């Protein structure tokens, strides 16, 4: 298997909630180090698709194959529960909009980061603490806050801690669901900058859901536009946003310009 082999291939992903369509017949290929944005208005199926890709939701139809660290392409639906959990704890990250869903709020900042290291086999307390301090400083959290729990942190700090917790194991793929949503504009800008430089430094593959096209433009190489559960347009981010083909995408783009 060469490095050109895709990291993740999804085919025909479909999910119904009873009779209601979540998303339908979505196919995509993601390579290592590639950032894909999924955009669309509220209810268009973005979170459903992210849930399917991250195996949190079971598809009604379709399949996802993922290239494991040993190079083997595996059908994610055929993983054992143990293998799936290991993937989630080590090779993948998931940065959620609400940091309290991605952090352990009653555990110290250092513990939140250290816990993931322990999941990949780190045992030496001093080593774990040093690595946690290093990661806190990478996400611009003062080392003297290491023993505070995230309840004592601002929204932006919580989000930066969530990022450190997710990236400390050097995952190859990170899912992000509106990672800057709900924060003040100035906090958002700083966080986006941080995400952008970490993603580039670590060569991460990212699948990011956002309704904010400015976020997609800043972070992503490729973009998929969803409407009513389907992908209606996709391509290189700059091309799609500068010259949208679909009237719906044109509307999305122009409402941002008018904002
Ligand atoms: N748990 C659920 N039960 C029933 N229907 C659901 C459920 N979750 C999502 N849906 C439906 O699936 C469709 C897609 O929703 P989804 O949350 O994936 O969209 P979204 O683009 O992420 O929206 P938002 O930006 O508001 O989060 C919507 O019609 C929604 O009502």
From TrEMBL:
Which is one GO molecular function term here? ATP hydrolysis activity
One GO biological process term is:
organic phosphonate catabolic process
Residues in ABC transporter domain copies: 8-253
Which keywords, in A-to-Z order, does the entry hold? ATP-binding, Lyase, Nucleotide-binding
Record family assignment: Belongs to the ABC transporter superfamily.
What is the protein name for this chain?
A: Phosphonate C-P lyase system protein PhnK
Q: Which organism is it from?
A: Azorhizobium oxalatiphilum
Gene of this entry: phnK
